[in-house]
Every structure is written in C-alpha cells, then in structure tokens.
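Postdoc handover notes: sequence design on the structure in folder B. Input tokens:
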C-alpha cells in the first residue's frame, strides 16, 4: 500500500512537471457514506465529498423542516454513516438520542448550530434534549406574528444565511478529511485535492453572499412578510425587515385575529409582497394579500437539495417582490411565483 502510494506520488510529481500545476491524485479517494438531515444541506455538503460517495437526505423534499420523526431507515443510514451533518438548535427533534443510538466509533458529526457558536460543542447532550422539548410547543410560537426577530430561541434556519454557510464549509471539509484518514489514510496528493475542492466550494458559497449583498443593497430597509419565521437571518444580514409572518407557529394555521394583525402590519409597513412557502397551504397568506391589496411571491426555505438553486430562486423572488419603483402599485403586483 505504502509502496504503491509512493510510486503513484512520484508518477504524479512527474505529471505536475509536465502539466503545469495540474496534479492528479495518486489514487482516487475512497467514497464515503454521508447523511444530512434536511435537503439544503445536501447542496452544501455534496461538493466536498469524494466521487462515488453516497449522500442520504433524511427529510424528504416537500414537507416542512420542523417536527421530523426519524424512521427506521434513517437509523439504518445513520448507523453506517461516516459523516453526519445536521442543523441542531432543536430543529431535528430527538436528534441527540438518535445519534447516541446509532453511534459509530469514527463517525464525524457536524452540527451547524455548533459550528456557528449557537450551541455548545458535542458531548453536552442536555442541550439537544432540552431544545427537543420545545418541539411540541414549537420555537416560533411566542411570535405575535409581527415582531420580526423576537424569537423564543435562536432562528434555526441557519442555511438561509450564506455567511453562516461559508463558515460551515471548512468544518464539513475537515470532517471529510478526518473520516478518510481513519478509513484508509490519505496521501499528500489526496490531501491537496481535498483542499482544492474545499477552496472551490468556499468561493462558490461566498459568491452567493456577494450576490445577495449586491442585489439587495438597493432594496435596503424594505419590509417583507414571510409565511413562517424562517428568513430573519438573511433579512437582517442584507438589510431587510420582517414586518410580519403569516404563521406565528409553523404547526397551525393563523387565527382570524392573527390574519387581521398581519394585514394591518402590511399596510403600516408598506409591504409589497406576501411571500408564501411551498410547504404550507397558501390560503391564509393569499387572503392577507388580497385584503391588503399586495402581491404574492414565493420564498422556499428548503428546496430540493440544490442549495445554490434555492438561494438564487429566493434572491430573485425578493428582487421581484420588493423591486418595484417607490410608488407602490399593488394592482400590478405579480401572482404566485414558483422558484
Ligand atoms: Zn422553519
């Protein structure tokens, strides 16, 4: 094994000389089994994996990201995973118990909430368990529906903030390296290849932040209404205000009183578009839009697994929903827009 690696390194070294800075790995990287909890993590994680790796998304597209119940197939996937990437912060109820139940000695676990310092590091089981208890009552429930960022707990939708996603990339990349080290070991050239892959992906994620910054700058200070409280982080990051959310709780439809309150906020704050989410029934949101005389757009918190496509569609939806000239023309506002 060692001999082969050395020989291959020498061969690759020669190739470098010939192909001017285009070294090829001595040996292909072995594939990994990777599990992520929600679809958008797929797009953030997959580009960092060796070719041929298996990536399993536990929560299927089309359903909401809250209140997921792990199934036997999920436990099986976790039991053979080399790397697990999750959000934490109570988004995945019972996550900690599930991880304990399926623990493997060399499995790398990356919690987004931990990576960005919103949750203590692994080992403090009480944190996840405690957050999990909020599931029945839901973290957004304390929302009056119009206070934007006033959360009971930190906003769990970390993947909708490109800056936080850029922080996640190197940690996942490191987990991939560690996993490969314990699995088969890594040659110097393989390490270089992994580092290049990480650099390319980091640039791609950083470009998303740049696009949001640049294209939302002219719209700074505008108010939005979202379907549930999933977009407070990008709003804050890029200078928008969440004037109201249609569903104070992600588990129940708004009451007539809440609907009336959102309509009032829409009028007061000059909101131009109500952003519905594909995972929810749009009726209440559309009623609000009609009552307030504004348009309807779509902001998708989850997507189908392609994080880049998701972020571009959401950015385009914001531009379209907010980007009209200052004299508001409610009658002209667009109808539902699928990302
Ligand atoms: Zn949510």
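Designed sequence:
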């Amino acid at each position: 094994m060692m001999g082969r690696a050395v020989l291959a390194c020498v061969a690759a070294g020669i190739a470098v000389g010939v192909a001017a800075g285009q070294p090829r790995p001595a040996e292909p990287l072995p594939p990994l089994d990777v599990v992520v909890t929600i679809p958008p993590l797929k797009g953030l994680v997959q580009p960092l994996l060796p070719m041929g790796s298996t990536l399993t998304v536990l929560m299927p597209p089309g359903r909401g990201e809250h209140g997921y119940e792990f199934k036997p197939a999920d436990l099986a996937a976790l039991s053979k995973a080399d790397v697990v990437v999750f959000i934490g912060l109570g988004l995945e109820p019972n996550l900690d118990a599930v991880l304990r139940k399926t623990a493997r000695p060399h499995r790398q676990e990356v919690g987004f909430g931990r990576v960005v310092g919103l949750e203590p590091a692994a080992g403090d089981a009480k944190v996840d368990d405690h957050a999990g208890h909020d599931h029945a009552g839901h973290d957004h429930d304390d929302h009056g529906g119009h206070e934007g960022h006033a959360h009971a707990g930190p906003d769990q939708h970390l993947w909708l903030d490109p800056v936080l996603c850029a922080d996640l990339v190197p940690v996942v990349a490191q987990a991939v390296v560690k996993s490969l080290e314990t699995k088969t070991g890594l040659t110097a050239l393989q390490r270089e290849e992994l580092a290049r892959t990480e650099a390319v992906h980091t640039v791609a994620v950083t470009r998303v932040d740049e696009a949001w910054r640049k294209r939302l700058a002219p719209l700074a200070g505008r108010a939005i209404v979202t379907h549930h409280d999933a977009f407070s982080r990008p709003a804050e990051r890029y200078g928008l205000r969440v004037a109201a959310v249609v569903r104070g709780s992600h588990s129940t439809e708004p009451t007539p009183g809440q609907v009336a309150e959102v309509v009032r906020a829409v009028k007061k704050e000059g909101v131009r578009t109500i952003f519905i989410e594909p995972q929810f029934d749009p009726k209440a949101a559309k009623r609000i839009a009609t009552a307030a005389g504004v348009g309807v757009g779509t902001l998708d918190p989850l997507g189908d697994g392609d994080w880049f496509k998701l972020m571009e569609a959401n950015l385009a939806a914001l531009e379209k929903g907010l980007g009209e000239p200052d004299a508001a023309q409610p009658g002209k506002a667009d109808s539902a827009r699928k990302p």
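Context for whoever picks this up: Residues 65-66, 157, 228, 230, 250, 301 surround zinc ion (CB under 6 Å). Don't rerun without checking with the PI first.
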